[in-house]
Design brief:
single chain, 267 residues, alpha/beta, 2-enoyl-CoA Hydratase, Chain A, domain 1, Lyase 2-enoyl-coa Hydratase, Chain  A, domain 2, six-stranded mixed sheet, 12 helices, 9 strands
Length: 267
């Protein structure tokens, strides 16, 4: 049984498919005929999915059906939008993607084919990105007479810097998978067709971590990185104390000291 049918039957639109594979939830964009373009129903469905994530899920994999991750915003939806409606629409995307970035569990995105415009904004809200060699990245808003509105101006510069993002928007520059990997748009680069298996493997490893540690990484780490150093050190100290004081952490440390836990290797 699909988890989406069991849990979010009324909330998920036809453009999304959700299932639970053990302790990993898989959310798939299902508009391959539109290169998985993101319309309002899809964005609201993504928000509903992460809002109602079941307790069994300890990590999420985000993927796209067909040859593309997502070609971005469905432009047919913005032609008649007023300025006020445009602000509201952008804030709706921000709210949905914050459910990913600052949600309960880490999210791994599988990137292939088009990762363009709003598709790149969605990908950058995830914590880990696995790119197949077919992936390519672009921000064509400059050529469309519009501006990014799904969080790219905040998230993309964190990964590649303001100058490189400006280059993409001003000139229409497209980065292929290898270039994107070198710049930091993905942390993993795999062969075509291998992305989903790699993402599920990574998500499985993430799900095996202590939940409190995972939560600290996705909630505290980005805030510490953006904080004044003195505040960052204090937040780090507090988070370290909370994490190591949990029963889960104490058992894991005992297992390591008693040589019951796997050691770190170079692989």
């Amino acid at each position: 049984m699909r988890w989406g049918e069991r849990i979010l039957e009324s909330a998920l639109p036809s453009s999304l498919r959700a299932e639970l594979r053990g302790d990993v939830a898989l959310l798939t964009l299902v508009r391959p005929e539109k290169r998985n373009a993101l319309n309002d129903d899809t964005i609201l469905g993504i928000e509903a999915f992460f809002q109602a994530l079941p307790v069994e899920a300890r990590a999420v994999v985000l993927a796209g059906e067909g040859e593309n991750f997502s070609a971005g915003l469905d432009l047919s939806e913005i032609t008649e939008r007023s300025t006020v409606e445009g602000v509201s629409h952008s804030m709706m995307w921000h709210r949905a993607f914050e459910r990913i970035e600052f949600g309960r569990v880490p999210v791994v995105a599988v990137l292939k084919g088009a990762v363009v415009g709003g598709g790149l904004e969605l990908a950058c809200a995830a914590h880990i990105r696995v790119a197949e060699r077919s992936a390519y990245y672009a921000l064509p808003e400059g050529q469309r007479g519009i501006f990014v509105g799904g969080g790219a101006s905040v998230r993309v510069p964190r990964l590649i810097g303001v100058a490189r993002m400006a280059d993409m928007m001003l000139t229409g520059r497209v980065h292929d998978a290898e270039s994107g990997y070198a710049l930091g748009l993905s942390q993993y680069l795999v062969e075509p067709g291998a992305g989903l298996d790699k993402a599920l493997d990574l998500a499985g490893r993430i799900a095996a971590n202590a939940p409190l540690t995972n939560f600290a990484v996705i909630q505290a780490l980005p805030r510490i990185a953006e904080a004044d150093p003195r505040q960052g050190f204090m937040m780090e100290a507090l988070m370290a104390a909370v994490a190591q004081g949990s029963d889960d952490a104490k058992e894991r440390l005992r297992a390591f000291l008693e040589k019951r836990a796997k050691k770190v290797t170079e692989f």
